[in-house]
Amino acid sequence: MLTGRKIPVIMAVGGFDPSGGAGILADIKTVSSLGCYGVAVLTSVTIQNTRGVLDVHHQSAKTVRDQIAALEDDFQVSAVKTGMLPTEEIVDALATALSAVEPRFLVVDPVLNASAGFDLAGISMKAIIGRLFPVASLVTPNANEAARITGITIVDRESMERAGREIQTMGAQAVLIKGGDMGSEEAVDILIDSKGVLELSGPKIHSSNTHGTGCTMASAIAALLASGRPLREAVRMAKAYVAAAIRTAPGLGHGYGPVNHFHAMADHGAEG
Ligand code: PLP
Fold it and tell me: What integer best gives the mean pLDDT of the chain?
């Protein structure tokens, strides 16, 4: 519980997943459980459950612009975390609005597809690279997204690092390539920042409850940065937070289930 100091406000900009595993619901749960206050800007209503995405209803650039303006007028936002940004117009509206929001940190999760394969942002990736990477504190692609962004085939640590450096040349201050979906028994992530390269590895947790882990990781990092943690520490802590969230997942739904965002909170003794 934060008392005696101002609670950091995190703005999550992304899609709505009604099943609550990914998107802005996952972002809000994550930042809340890490002691921050979450506000959200909706870019698209997705129709989905844990089995997959059935449809998407993208918001207009004006709707996105107006949501940000209303929040910016009322809150001091410490960090902005972006997820699903489905159109170029939305990316442009966000990039322009950021100069008024003036967050201390911008964490860009370059979401391309849902785990079940639905295209969530393929058409706007050029705009995300051109307008958001140059102002990003951190970009957090998984290996597949990093490969699509750079054209580099990612098969090992060396190619992850090469892709990360390439994304850094696109303007991002730091890049975290997440290798959790790669074949090995270790979940190896590579962080490239101003100090150099840091390899973070942990045992891979074999689970189908991984829906929204990308959203969760990026918002955890945004919350920890806004709470004053240095980047490397924020990334290490966020990785541990996500691992515990997968390990204690509630096992809901019939597809890729949600993780447990509140694993650090008390068990309420509910029986089910
Ligand atoms: N944002 C939304 C709205 C989504 O529906 C999804 C996946 O379904 C994602 C982001 C990306 O999810 P993940 O965190 O699993 O990469």
Answer: 93
Q: List the single range of 32-46, 115-129, 136-150, 237-251 with lowest mean pLDDT.
A: 115-129
Single-letter amino acid, residue 136: A
Q: Which of 16, 17, 42, 58 to mutate to test the pocket of ligand 1 (most atoms within 8 A of CB)?
A: 17
On the question of pLDDT at 227 being above 50, the answer is yes
Q: What is the pTM of this model?
A: 0.95
Helix, strand, or coil here: 73? coil
Closest to 44 measured CA to CA, from 143, 111, 130? 111
Residue 198 one-letter amino acid: L
- 221 Cα: distance to centroid of ligand 1 (angstroms): 16
Distances in Å between the alpha carbon of 181 and those of 6, 122, 155, 214, 270? 37, 19, 11, 11, 33
Q: How far is CA 204 from CA 185, 188, 234, in A?
A: 6, 9, 20
Q: CA 21, CA 42: separation in Å to the nearest integer?
A: 15
